Structures are given as C-alpha cells and as structure tokens.
Amino acid sequence: MLLFKTAGDVLEFSLLQQNQQKSIGFVPTMGALHDGHLALIEASKMSNDLTVCSIFVNPTQFNNPDDFKHYPITIEKDIKALEAAGADMLFYPSVAEIYPAGWQKKHYDLGYLETILEGAFRPGHFQGVCEVVERLLDIVMPANLYMGQKDFQQCMVIKRLLSITGKDQSVKLHIIPTYRETDGLAMSSRNMRLNDAHRQLAVEISKALETVKQGYGKHPGGELTAAAKKHLEQKGFGVDYVEIASAEELLPVTGTKEKAVVLAAASLGSVRLIDNLLLN
Ligand code: AMP
Prior knowledge:
This protein is an alpha/beta fold and about 280 residues long. It has helices at about 5-20, 35-45, 65-70, 75-85, 95-100, 120, 125-140, 150-165, 195-215, 220-235; strands at about 1-5, 25-30, 50-55, 90, 145-150, 170-175, 240-245, 260-270, 270-280. The strands form two sheets. A six-stranded parallel sheet has the order 1-4-3-2-5-6, with helices on both faces. It is globular and about 55 Å long. Adenosine monophosphate binds near residues 29, 40, 151, 186 and 188.
C-alpha cells in the first residue's frame, strides 16, 4: 500500500490513474479503524481499479474541543488493517496540508439539513464536514465515494454537497449499511472511549431503536420516540434526540407507507454516540 502525506503526491497519483482510465474508489475516515470502515474499503475494492483511504481528524468539524482532543488515534494499527484489507493507497495528511496558509473558508448552503438533528446539536459540524470532503475530493478525484449509513444525516449532507458543487457529475456516492458489534452496538471509533460499564450500557441505544421499529405502524411515532428517550434517560444516558424522519429527506413523515428512519444521539459520560435504523 502506498502512503502519501502531501496533497501534491496524491494529486500526481490521481492524475496518473485518471490518464490510465483507472477508477478510484475513495473512503474518507478519521482513523481508529474498525470493521465498519473496512466494509467500506471492501465495497470500494469490488467496483474500482484502485481504493484510496484517507485518515484525517478534521479539526473544523468538531464543535466540541474536548471531543477533538480525545479523538482516538491508532495510526499504526490502521495502516496494518488497511494493508490487510487490500487498500491501494492511504492519504494521511497534516492539518497544514489540508488547510494551507491563506485557506479561504466557504459557506455551504445546506438548508434545513444544517439546523435539524445533528445540525442542531453540533453547530458548524456539517460546514466542516463539507469543507474537508470537498478538499479531499479535489485531491483524490475519485469516481466513487463510500460512506456509512451510520452517519445517516452526513450522507444526505454529502449528497447535497455533490449537487451544489456540481461534483455529482463525476463522483457517485455509495451508502454502506451500518456494521454492528455482536450485541448490536453500531461500530464507532468513539466506542473505544467507553469504560466497561458504559460499553455494556451502550447497546441500549440500538435496542431502543429496535423497539421503535417493532412498534412502528402500530403506535404513534411520537409515543414510540418519547418512550425510547425516557428508557435511555432512565438507563443514565444524556439524550439529545430520538426522532423519526423520512428516509429520503429527513423531514416529518406523512404516513407509514413513506420510507422512514429513526435516529438517535445520546451520551454516556463524555462520549456521544449516534445510531439509526430504517423502519420500513
Ligand atoms: P469516521 O472515521 O467516523 O469519520 O467514519 C468514516 C466513514 O466510515 C463514514 O462514512 C462513516 O459513516 C463510516 N462508518 C463509521 N462507522 C460505521 C459503521 N459502524 N458501519 C459502516 N460505516 C461506518
């Protein structure tokens, strides 16, 4: 596996592949890789000539400085996992490489996507996500981009980013289902920060979402989400939200025939976790 740290080296690599008509599949990550990330690599490998992964803990998408400070870094283990998974290239840049001196911030018009759910609880987060993803796409120039359903709203934001920047003409977004631990907890780099007691408890999020799914169509959605929220609070979570929304737009659902998703964000101590489940 090639390892590049500069944008210049990656650009040169990407242009060479483009000239040889080789397709690049791209998996952007913040590292501390787990099997969910590796499922994205695997999906990319199946449909592209080359698979590129990036590891970059993007400071501009952290609204909570403590979360940024404590974000797990396991780069040596990550490199080994990517090699074993058959990734062709890892881009592992510094902050100065992604945001060089004089870097101009843009504003992305994300509409209501920026003010609901994660947007409401993490102001500025999706602007930072768009900033880094646009920059990475300009450097890696992939034909296919792989992201996880685990970050459901992020996938919608990136769809919008591709559309407002015109990149949807050259890059196709593929959304890969959420990988879970055997007990049901959605895999996340942040799970590493849970202590043993919190790790045991964390599974309650996916269980609560599953209960909402079981009741969907039989009971009013508002009652189901209120019960899930209460259950998590009783277990000791700080709950930001448990909400049902349309799976296409993340807007209020108009009937049980419409494709819907239940999404939750809740914290155990200082570790904030998110998860979601399609309902129908
Ligand atoms: P992150 O390193 O957390 O920024 O995640 C990098 C990519 O991996 C994003 O597209 C995530 O949605 C995806 N991802 C994270 N966790 C999972 C998971 N459990 N299953 C599938 N994809 C995931």
